[in-house]
Amino acid sequence: MIKGMTGFSSVEVVQGATKAVLEIRSVNHRYLDVAYFLPPGFVCFEDKMRAVIQRSVVRGRVIVSIKITEKQEPGIAFNKGVIRAYLKREKEIKKEFHLQGDLSLSDLIKLPGVVEVHEVEPKTALLWPAIERSMTKALNILTVMRQREGKSIAKDITKQTSCMLLGINKIRSKEKELISQKKQKLSTEELESYQKGIDVNEELSRLSHHIEEVRRLLKSKEAIGKQIDFIAQEMQREANTIGSKLQDKVVSSTVIALKSSIEKIREQAQNIE
Question: Rounded distance, CA 264 to CA 229, Å?
């Protein structure tokens, strides 16, 4: 089943006291382009993350973000030396200025340097196994979403190729009709020259072949976006040649419709992995 390039997934990463939310989103891009929004100290995981992503994604811009939601409680310590210094100075000031009252604990902890808070950062080396598991889960969710988009795109491209096949048949019929009309007006030699000049059998056959190839690719499990885009360019060339060879109002309008369908296929190719 073909895949689109748009998707989103969010999973939780849990390792000991550390919890985080990992999000992976993807959008259209010509190649695989990975961007990271990671907490401090997580840059070391970028290469490993890219390797995991490449197992599931061939093309698209992939944005990976991790946000720490819980971590080990910070260490809190009272600086006893600073407290002693404050209390000593308190006694000196009270004695010197004949003041009353004592410093309470609530007063002390508000003073600069009394309380020291030590943030405990997650040990990143221990987090990788949990991150890898979460990434694999997130990428599976992302792939399902991209496959749903791919199914919708394939349906639309198939519809466009069906319209093109109707147009090809219409042009073939019109070509025969024009030749039949000319038989009554032209000599054998002139008719032969006329037939050669408007002969678009090769172009129509190639166009039919391209349609079959696109439909075959839509059943593929591989990345096919670039291939379909290339084939669509070839279709445009054939349609242009048909329009220039066979000058007729019906054919011209049919060629315009063909080119419209081809352009829609090209646009959708930009959305396929």
Answer: 11
pLDDT digit string, tens, across residues 99-154: 788 878 888 788 888 788 766 566 777 889 999 999 999 999 999 999 999 999 99
Q: Which residue has the tokens 């009270």?
A: 94
- Domain positions in the chain: 7-72+122-145, 75-118, 148-269
Our CA dihedral for 49, 52, 56, 58, rounded to 10 degrees, sits at 60
* Closest listed residue to residue 10, CA positions, set 75, 90, 49, 65: 65
**232 φ, ψ (degrees, to nearest 5):** -60, -35
Does the structural domain 7-72+122-145 have CATH classification 3.30.230.70? yes
The owner of tokens 């009252």 is 101
Tokens of 64: 């990976």
pTM: 0.76
pLDDT tens-digit profile of 151-202? Answer: 999 999 999 999 999 999 999 998 888 888 777 787 778 778 878 888 899 9
268 CB burial (10 A radius; 0-12, 13-18, 19+): buried
The residues with which 78 forms a beta bridge, in sequence order, are 115
Distance CA 49, CA 47 (A): 5
Q: Are 268 and 184 within 8 A, CB to CB? A: no
